[in-house]
Amino acid sequence: MKKYTTIFKAVLIAVLIAFVFKTYLFASYIVDGESMEPTLYDGNLLMVNKIAYDIRDIDRTDVIVFHANPEEDYVKRVIGLPGDEISFENDILYINGEAVAEPYLDQLRPNDGEVFTEDFTLEEVTGETVVPEGELFVMGDNRRDSLDSRSFGFVSIEQIVGEVDMRYWPFSQVAVQF
C-alpha cells in the first residue's frame, strides 16, 4: 500500500508542477498560417515564455505571441519599439534613419527580382511618425504574405502573451533561437 501512496504523491506533484508551468510560466501555441514562413511553418508547435518580459525588456527581432483579438493570437517579429521611426526603402529596414540588418531574412529572400518588403514609412501605414509609448510595430517574416502592423497598426505591450522560446514540433524542425 505504501508503494501506491508514494506513486500517487509523485503523480500529484508532477501534475501540480505541470499546472504551474502551463498557467504561469509557459504556454504552448500552434502556428496558424504562413506569415512567419520559413522561420515558422503552419502547424509548428511553439513553447512561449510568458514571464520573459517580466524579467527583461522586449528587444527588436524578438518573436512574440500576442492577442490580436479576443479569439485569435498571432505570432510576429518585433520590428519597432516605442519612440522608433521606421521605414523601408529598397528592401532595407531603417530605424531612426539608420539601416538595420535583418540577417534572419537572408535565407528567406527569393531571388526572383521582386522586392521582398515593399517601401513604406511608418506614417504612411499608421498615421504616426514614431511608435507610440506602450506599443510595438510587428511584422511577419514572410513579408509578401503577412497580416501585420502594416495592416492592423501597432500592438499594445499589454497584448503580449510572451516570447517564443522554442519550436518543438515537428521534431525534425526543433529550434531554440529565431
Automatic annotation (TrEMBL):
One Pfam family per UniProt: Peptidase_S26
Cross-referenced SUPFAM superfamilies: LexA/Signal peptidase
Protein localization: Cell membrane; Membrane
Family of the protein in this entry: Belongs to the peptidase S26 family.
Organism of this sequence: Halobacillus andaensis
InterPro entries per record: LexA/Signal_pep-like_sf, Pept_S26A_signal_pept_1, Pept_S26A_signal_pept_1_CS, Pept_S26A_signal_pept_1_Lys-AS, Pept_S26A_signal_pept_1_Ser-AS, Peptidase_S26
Lineage of the organism: Bacteria, Bacillati, Bacillota, Bacilli, Bacillales
Name of the protein described by the UniProt record: Signal peptidase I
E.C. no: 3.4.21.89
GO CC entries: plasma membrane
Membrane topology: Single-pass type II membrane protein
Alphabetically ordered keywords of this record: Cell membrane, Hydrolase, Membrane, Protease, Transmembrane, Transmembrane helix
CDD domains hit by this protein: S26_SPase_I
